Amino acid sequence: MAVSQRAMFKFQLYVAADSLNSAQATANLGALCREYLPGRHEIEIIDVFLEPQRALAENIRMTPTLLKVSPRPARRIIGTLSQTQRVLDTLGLSARVA
Amino acid sequence: MNRDPPPDAKSGRRALPDEAAESIDSVSGTDAVGEISMVIRALRDADLRLQELTAGEVDSVSDREGRAYLLQPAQDRWRESEAEKHRTGAETLLRFAAAMDATSDAIYLVDRSNMRFIYVNEAACRSQEQTRAELLALPPAQVFGLAPAALALAYDALIAMDTESNPEELLSRGRDGGRLWLEFRRRAQRSGERWSIVTLVRDITARKEAETRIIHLNRVHAVLSGINTLIVRVRTRHELFTEACRVAAEQGGFPMTWMGMVDRSTMKIVPAAAVGMSREFLEFVGEKLSLQASAPFGQTLTARAIREGHAVWANDLEAVSNVVFRAELLEAGIRSMAVFPLVIKAEVVGVVALYAQETDFFHAGELKLLTELTGDIAFAIDHIAKQERLDYIAYYDVLTGLANRSLFFERTAQYIRGAASRRRKLALFLIDLERFKNINDSLGRPAGDALLRQVAQWLISHVGDVNLLARVGADHFAVVLPDIQRVEEVARQLETTLQAFLGHAFVVADAVLRIAAKVGVALYPEDGTDVDTLFKNAESALKGAKTSGVRYLCYAQEMTVSMAGRLSLESRLRQALERGEFALHYQPKVNLVSGELTGAEALLRWNDPLTELVPPNSFIPILEETGLILEVGRWALNEAVKDYRRWRETGLRAVRIAVNVSPLQLRNRDFLSEIERALGADAAAAAGLELEITESVIMEDVRLSIASLRAIRALGVRIAIDDFGTGFSSLSYLARLPVHNLKIDRSFVIDMTITPEGLALVSTIINLAHSLKLNVVAEGVETEEQSRLLRVLNCDEMQGYLFSKPLPREIFEAKYLRTARAGE
């Protein structure tokens, strides 16, 4: 865990312009990172309307979709990310919450 | 949006997203993707179900080619938000009214079509001190203080521009009268077909003040450093003042500045330098500004700064009253001013006044720096003064303030060059005060010093130009007259000046002193062509004058005297009495109407065998000085009485003889008995004698004079006041004087025909004398015109060259006394 504590979490969040769910996902991800990964996260927001090819390359078929790029293993979560605990579990960050 | 996990009632499947995420994650691979694509395609037209499937948390789905499709609810919300974006202007603003009320900037929203307020926020209401309802009812133009047309025009320009206006800064007055800096931003916004203008007003006073302070402080710093460099450089006070004013103007941006010194003796201010000030202002400062609190202008900033010893300022000239020339200053654009005292050793010696075009210029920071600055200037003044004092001692006599010998030599050398180039003569006088050592010994050194200072002042007032004077020794003064046309003129002037000097009463240590002076004269080019030679020869002439008893001597004449055996005038005068060299001449007095001889004045003459007849002016003063006058006067008195008696006895027409009495005689205790002795037992002799006493002598000690004169009159001798008009008679005493005749001084007789005032004066004297029952004699009558006027004025008698000059006794007797008798 020592390694992962220092590791940077890189996320890609695929959104559909400024539609509501996407906006909520963006806000939730931001809040979550500030609280659980302060100083060690990078978030890239990708608008599927503006960059459809990137979404296609990553096989993103719905928005909002969160892609955890690193650390491995890669994970993806579809939705507004409002259920914090479940998102943390999926990202492998739950140990810190307890 | 913390929803509970959506129920799986309809689909029977576990709810997304988590499950979906996991499933996607777990099945990541082309098959899974293909599967989802299938699902998507299948549900393409049934997005409602997809939403159910995704618990409404998905916005968009993409097809195989990556084309994203927005799901219906997201589309609705999108449209809504787009509409929101375009719904700017009034409605949006109104929606944010609460937020706008929270800001401290004043916000005004105006409808262009009707030029009315649509909305004003809380800050706007506060700044206008109105309720919202009141403010909304006001025309915007009125609130912004603009003409309605101008405001409309400005709005239209803004609408045409379609961008936010550049922020404008505006200085205005706050409700409390203070200065208020406001920043205006305006923006036009369309709402439907209507345009509205948002005006945002921010109070930037604090920021502006800070900026201004920095600018002002920088200016003051510039002055400070400019003047500090100056102080190191300048050598004279004048230069310091002039340059300091210039620095204040050029580097400090003070358009007006002046500096002045305090004159403690008059409690006035003497302006020393100025920039931008009018001549009238400086004259006013010099003449009218008084430092006394009770004086008419004693409460001005300048007077207060000097009295209180600290800076006094006014940061808004429009709001103060105790500033002189306020209207002029305001007109010149001056808005604030400060006056700083120049303090040396806890004493205010001067003042610096600075005027700024800005209201509110002088704040704590500026005042502190400028006070520091004036401290530096005061230090420089003190330093220069000390330096000047050193220079001064090198060139001036500290006691009298006159030039000393070396400066006098420098100046005279310069005057000689000037005289040489103009081919003029130059005279150098060396003056010695007689008996000065006695005065120093008997009255003390301080009295001697005081006398020297008074003599210096007397010389300054008589010579007129202090640069021509010097004190060159303990009791020696020197005068140079750099432009002489005629030497005779110099001699005559010197004569009258010496007479005046002798007549002047110096009051030292409560003693009245009359000081005689001896003068040695050297002339350029005759007696020398350089200053050293001239001075040496003047010294030699002075020595000669001292030993010979004459009052002044020219270097060339000094030679004559030395050839005459260096016999002192005094001893020659003594011998003259023994040898019978004195004689009485008689000048007739006649009745102005009848022309009849009424009497004669006996005048003392000296038949000096060396120089023949010596003018009375050059030996009578010496008789006075030496006290010989007592003996000579006694001789004259006896001689006159003898002559009168002889005239009577020999059958000549015996007219009354007037004999002059000197001050020394009058004060002599034995004088009365001398007269008695002269008259002898002959009772009739008194009828032939008249004593002439000058007015100034009588007035010197009126009480004593009255007593003496009464005693004389009791003997039957008549008394005349001589030289009337030259003393300072008080009318009350004049009426009490036991005198018979009043003799009008020749100077009045001369003036009488020159000016109306002169005529009026003589007329007044005659009337006055007549009202006191005095007989009036006019002296020095030389013209028919004078004689005619005197007749018109009812003058009784006259005496003068018109009728006859003084004549030797024999001639007088032959001419007047015999013929008169023959005519009888």
Structure in words:
The complex is a heterodimer of chains A (about 100) and B (about 800). Chain A has 5 helices and 5 strands, in the order H-E-H-E-H-E-E-E-H-H. Chain A has helices spanning about 1-5, 20-35, 50-55, 85-90, 95; strands at about 10-15, 40-45, 60-65, 65-70, 75-80. Chain A has a 4-stranded mixed β-sheet. Chain A starts with a helix and ends with a helix. With about 800 residues, chain B is α+β, with helices and mostly antiparallel strands. Chain B has 34 helices and 29 strands. In chain B, the strands form 6 sheets. Chain B has an 8-stranded mixed β-barrel, surrounded by 6 helices. In chain B, strands 4-3-7-6-5 form a 5-stranded antiparallel β-sheet. In chain B, strand 21 and strand 22 (about 610-615) form a beta hairpin. In chain B, helix 24 (about 615-625) crosses helix 25 (about 630-650). The radius of gyration of chain B is 53 Å and the shape is elongated. Chain B starts with 17 loop residues before the first helix and ends with a helix. Residues about 1-30, about 560-565 and about 820-824 of chain B have low confidence and may be disordered. The interface of A and B includes residues 77 and 87 of A. Strand 3 of chain A pairs antiparallel with strand 1 of chain B, so a sheet runs across the interface.
